[in-house]
Amino acid sequence: MHYAFDRYLAETQPHIGFERYSDDVIVHCVSEKQAKYVRNVIAARLRRYGLRIHPEKTRIVYCAQEGRTERRHGVEFTFLGYTFRPRYARLRDGRWKTGYLPAVSKTAMKHMAATIRGWHLGRCTTLTFDEIATMINPIVTGWINYYGRFYKSLLIAFLANQVNPHLVKWAMRKYKHLHRAPAKARRRLAHIATQHRDIFTHWQHGALPTGSTTGAV
Prior knowledge:
The chain is an alpha+beta fold. The protein is 46% helix and 14% strand. The chain contains 7 helices and 5 strands. It is elongated. The termini are far apart.
Protein backbone atom coordinates (compact mmCIF):
# COMPACT_ATOMS: atom_id res chain seq x y z
CA MET A 1 0.00 0.00 0.00
CA HIS A 2 2.78 2.44 0.89
CA TYR A 3 4.68 1.76 -2.32
CA ALA A 4 1.48 2.08 -4.34
CA PHE A 5 0.76 5.42 -2.68
CA ASP A 6 4.26 6.70 -3.46
CA ARG A 7 3.90 5.67 -7.09
CA TYR A 8 0.43 7.21 -7.34
CA LEU A 9 1.55 10.54 -5.92
CA ALA A 10 4.65 10.63 -8.11
CA GLU A 11 2.63 9.85 -11.24
CA THR A 12 -0.34 12.13 -10.61
CA GLN A 13 1.54 15.04 -9.01
CA PRO A 14 4.94 14.97 -10.75
CA HIS A 15 5.71 18.62 -9.96
CA ILE A 16 5.68 18.30 -6.17
CA GLY A 17 8.24 16.78 -3.85
CA PHE A 18 7.33 14.58 -0.92
CA GLU A 19 8.81 12.36 1.78
CA ARG A 20 7.03 9.52 3.49
CA TYR A 21 7.86 7.42 6.54
CA SER A 22 5.31 4.74 7.34
CA ASP A 23 1.96 6.57 7.48
CA ASP A 24 3.42 10.08 7.75
CA VAL A 25 3.94 12.16 4.62
CA ILE A 26 5.36 15.63 4.02
CA VAL A 27 4.34 17.24 0.72
CA HIS A 28 6.15 20.34 -0.59
CA CYS A 29 3.95 22.88 -2.37
CA VAL A 30 4.62 26.33 -3.78
CA SER A 31 1.38 27.93 -2.62
CA GLU A 32 -1.46 27.48 -0.17
CA LYS A 33 -3.82 26.90 -3.09
CA GLN A 34 -1.70 24.03 -4.37
CA ALA A 35 -1.38 22.60 -0.85
CA LYS A 36 -5.15 22.50 -0.43
CA TYR A 37 -5.56 20.88 -3.83
CA VAL A 38 -3.00 18.15 -3.13
CA ARG A 39 -4.50 17.53 0.30
CA ASN A 40 -7.89 16.94 -1.32
CA VAL A 41 -6.33 14.65 -3.92
CA ILE A 42 -4.67 12.55 -1.20
CA ALA A 43 -7.88 12.44 0.85
CA ALA A 44 -9.86 11.24 -2.16
CA ARG A 45 -7.27 8.55 -2.91
CA LEU A 46 -7.37 7.25 0.66
CA ARG A 47 -11.15 7.16 0.71
CA ARG A 48 -11.07 4.66 -2.15
CA TYR A 49 -9.46 2.20 0.25
CA GLY A 50 -11.64 3.02 3.25
CA LEU A 51 -8.99 5.26 4.80
CA ARG A 52 -8.86 8.94 5.70
CA ILE A 53 -6.29 11.57 6.47
CA HIS A 54 -5.69 12.30 10.15
CA PRO A 55 -7.92 15.26 11.08
CA GLU A 56 -5.42 16.71 13.59
CA LYS A 57 -2.03 15.78 12.14
CA THR A 58 -2.86 16.90 8.61
CA ARG A 59 -1.95 20.58 8.43
CA ILE A 60 -0.87 23.18 5.93
CA VAL A 61 2.23 24.96 7.25
CA TYR A 62 3.89 28.08 5.90
CA CYS A 63 7.68 27.70 5.84
CA ALA A 64 8.62 31.19 6.95
CA GLN A 65 12.25 32.21 6.56
CA GLU A 66 14.33 35.13 5.35
CA GLY A 67 12.69 36.47 2.21
CA ARG A 68 9.41 34.69 2.98
CA THR A 69 7.73 36.70 5.71
CA GLU A 70 4.02 36.46 4.98
CA ARG A 71 1.98 36.07 8.14
CA ARG A 72 0.46 32.62 8.53
CA HIS A 73 -1.14 30.84 11.48
CA GLY A 74 0.90 27.63 11.17
CA VAL A 75 4.67 27.96 10.79
CA GLU A 76 5.95 24.73 12.35
CA PHE A 77 5.43 20.99 12.25
CA THR A 78 7.03 17.88 13.74
CA PHE A 79 8.23 14.90 11.72
CA LEU A 80 10.27 11.90 12.90
CA GLY A 81 11.21 13.55 16.19
CA TYR A 82 12.26 16.86 14.63
CA THR A 83 10.36 20.13 14.80
CA PHE A 84 10.71 22.26 11.67
CA ARG A 85 10.28 26.01 12.17
CA PRO A 86 12.04 29.35 11.58
CA ARG A 87 15.40 29.42 13.37
CA TYR A 88 18.49 31.60 13.32
CA ALA A 89 21.48 30.02 11.62
CA ARG A 90 25.00 31.25 10.99
CA LEU A 91 26.21 31.27 7.39
CA ARG A 92 29.72 30.31 6.34
CA ASP A 93 30.68 33.97 6.04
CA GLY A 94 29.69 34.54 9.68
CA ARG A 95 26.41 36.32 9.05
CA TRP A 96 23.19 35.21 10.70
CA LYS A 97 19.94 34.61 8.86
CA THR A 98 16.54 33.10 9.54
CA GLY A 99 16.07 29.72 7.89
CA TYR A 100 13.40 27.06 8.08
CA LEU A 101 15.29 24.39 9.97
CA PRO A 102 14.72 21.17 11.93
CA ALA A 103 15.80 20.55 15.51
CA VAL A 104 15.03 17.95 18.14
CA SER A 105 11.36 18.27 19.13
CA LYS A 106 9.98 18.99 22.58
CA THR A 107 8.26 15.60 22.57
CA ALA A 108 11.55 13.84 21.82
CA MET A 109 13.29 15.77 24.59
CA LYS A 110 10.50 14.84 26.99
CA HIS A 111 11.00 11.15 26.17
CA MET A 112 14.77 11.45 26.59
CA ALA A 113 14.36 13.25 29.92
CA ALA A 114 12.09 10.45 31.13
CA THR A 115 14.71 7.88 30.13
CA ILE A 116 17.44 9.82 31.96
CA ARG A 117 15.32 10.01 35.11
CA GLY A 118 14.66 6.28 34.79
CA TRP A 119 18.37 5.55 35.08
CA HIS A 120 18.24 6.71 38.73
CA LEU A 121 21.90 7.65 38.52
CA GLY A 122 21.84 9.18 41.97
CA ARG A 123 21.13 5.76 43.42
CA CYS A 124 23.79 3.90 41.43
CA THR A 125 26.38 4.30 44.17
CA THR A 126 27.65 0.75 43.73
CA LEU A 127 28.86 1.70 40.24
CA THR A 128 32.08 3.49 39.39
CA PHE A 129 32.21 6.54 37.16
CA ASP A 130 33.44 4.38 34.27
CA GLU A 131 30.67 1.84 34.85
CA ILE A 132 28.03 4.58 34.69
CA ALA A 133 29.58 5.76 31.43
CA THR A 134 29.46 2.21 30.06
CA MET A 135 25.77 2.04 30.99
CA ILE A 136 24.58 5.31 29.47
CA ASN A 137 27.02 6.06 26.64
CA PRO A 138 25.45 3.73 24.04
CA ILE A 139 22.04 5.34 24.54
CA VAL A 140 23.38 8.90 24.50
CA THR A 141 25.43 8.09 21.41
CA GLY A 142 22.27 6.98 19.64
CA TRP A 143 20.51 10.21 20.56
CA ILE A 144 23.39 12.35 19.35
CA ASN A 145 23.77 10.40 16.11
CA TYR A 146 20.08 10.85 15.34
CA TYR A 147 18.92 14.13 16.86
CA GLY A 148 22.28 15.85 16.50
CA ARG A 149 22.22 15.85 12.71
CA PHE A 150 20.43 19.20 12.66
CA TYR A 151 20.74 22.17 15.04
CA LYS A 152 22.95 20.11 17.30
CA SER A 153 23.48 22.93 19.79
CA LEU A 154 19.92 22.57 21.10
CA LEU A 155 20.43 18.86 21.80
CA ILE A 156 23.81 19.40 23.45
CA ALA A 157 22.43 22.09 25.77
CA PHE A 158 19.58 19.74 26.67
CA LEU A 159 21.94 16.85 27.50
CA ALA A 160 24.15 19.10 29.62
CA ASN A 161 21.16 20.28 31.63
CA GLN A 162 19.65 16.82 32.00
CA VAL A 163 22.53 14.37 32.51
CA ASN A 164 25.16 16.35 34.41
CA PRO A 165 22.94 17.24 37.42
CA HIS A 166 22.27 13.51 37.91
CA LEU A 167 26.01 12.88 37.93
CA VAL A 168 26.35 15.51 40.65
CA LYS A 169 23.69 13.71 42.71
CA TRP A 170 25.56 10.44 42.20
CA ALA A 171 28.79 11.99 43.49
CA MET A 172 27.03 13.50 46.51
CA ARG A 173 25.58 10.14 47.53
CA LYS A 174 28.66 8.08 46.78
CA TYR A 175 31.26 10.18 48.59
CA LYS A 176 30.72 11.22 52.21
CA HIS A 177 32.67 14.45 51.91
CA LEU A 178 30.25 15.58 49.19
CA HIS A 179 26.99 14.58 50.93
CA ARG A 180 25.97 18.11 51.86
CA ALA A 181 28.18 20.01 49.41
CA PRO A 182 26.44 20.35 46.02
CA ALA A 183 28.66 23.25 44.96
CA LYS A 184 31.78 21.24 45.78
CA ALA A 185 30.36 18.24 43.90
CA ARG A 186 29.69 20.39 40.84
CA ARG A 187 33.24 21.76 40.95
CA ARG A 188 34.60 18.24 41.26
CA LEU A 189 32.56 17.09 38.28
CA ALA A 190 33.77 20.06 36.24
CA HIS A 191 37.36 19.21 37.15
CA ILE A 192 36.92 15.59 36.06
CA ALA A 193 35.36 16.71 32.78
CA THR A 194 38.28 19.05 32.19
CA GLN A 195 40.82 16.28 32.72
CA HIS A 196 38.88 13.35 31.24
CA ARG A 197 36.45 14.64 28.65
CA ASP A 198 36.40 11.28 26.86
CA ILE A 199 34.60 9.46 29.71
CA PHE A 200 31.08 10.40 28.62
CA THR A 201 29.79 10.69 25.07
CA HIS A 202 27.87 13.88 25.79
CA TRP A 203 31.03 15.47 27.23
CA GLN A 204 32.92 14.61 24.05
CA HIS A 205 30.30 16.54 22.07
CA GLY A 206 30.43 19.61 24.27
CA ALA A 207 27.73 18.95 26.88
CA LEU A 208 30.17 19.71 29.69
CA PRO A 209 29.46 20.59 33.32
CA THR A 210 29.46 24.28 34.14
CA GLY A 211 32.95 25.32 35.16
CA SER A 212 34.86 22.94 32.90
CA THR A 213 37.84 24.84 31.53
CA THR A 214 37.51 23.14 28.15
CA GLY A 215 34.20 24.92 27.74
CA ALA A 216 30.84 24.78 29.44
CA VAL A 217 27.34 24.46 28.05
